[in-house]
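Pinned message: reference record for Protein of uncharacterized function (DUF466)
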Amino acid sequence: MTRTPPTAQPAGQETGRETERPGARRRVREALARARALWRDLTGESAYDRYLERYAREHADCPHRPDGAHGSGQGSGQGSGRASGHGPMSEREFWRARAEQAETEIKASCC
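Predicted structure (tokens):
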């Protein structure tokens, strides 16, 4: 009995689950990434990331830095605002300033 070799499929035309898996996995990963981003936004966890993005955008052309970045981020922080010539707050400083602001800015109205 003579065996015939399997017929080769043209490139990119595999059959069955072989072609569906990478696309399906990618869609699942993208859906999970969107869900994670939404969860981080709802819980406030992404606030520091947004702060860093805004800081980079607003201080991109800062004259106080030779390489386009502020200093090391060390130095005297003044509440939620930093003195000119310093880098962005560390994550720890950011959350402390945010908590302090929430405690000091009490809204008296109900609506």
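Pinned by admin. Summary line: The longest strand covers residues 77-78.
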